[in-house]
Design a protein that fits this description.
single chain; four-stranded antiparallel sheet; 35% helix; 75 residues; alpha+beta
């Protein structure tokens, strides 16, 4: 019997978003992470919405990746 993985959406407030190049870079990089199914960057709201497997959130992988790209996560 196959195990089903639940999909979850997380929204991050991200500092340092400046334009289309930032959006493209984040969408490209995060979409290649294991367990991530979609990425949507809202430049006006300075938010990144990520649909992903539940296991991705608990690992902190998305936050670490955003920070490694030079963006800050805002609470």
């Amino acid at each position: 019997m196959a195990t089903q993985t639940k999909t979850k959406q997380s929204v991050y407030r991200v500092g340092g978003l400046k334009g289309d190049h930032c959006r493209d870079r984040i969408e490209h990089t995060l979409s290649h992470l294991h367990g991530v199914s979609s990425v949507k960057v809202d430049l006006a709201a300075k938010q990144v919405a990520v649909s992903h497997d539940e296991s991705v959130t608990s690992s902190g992988y998305i936050e670490e990746t955003l920070q490694s790209l030079g963006y800050s996560i805002q609470g």
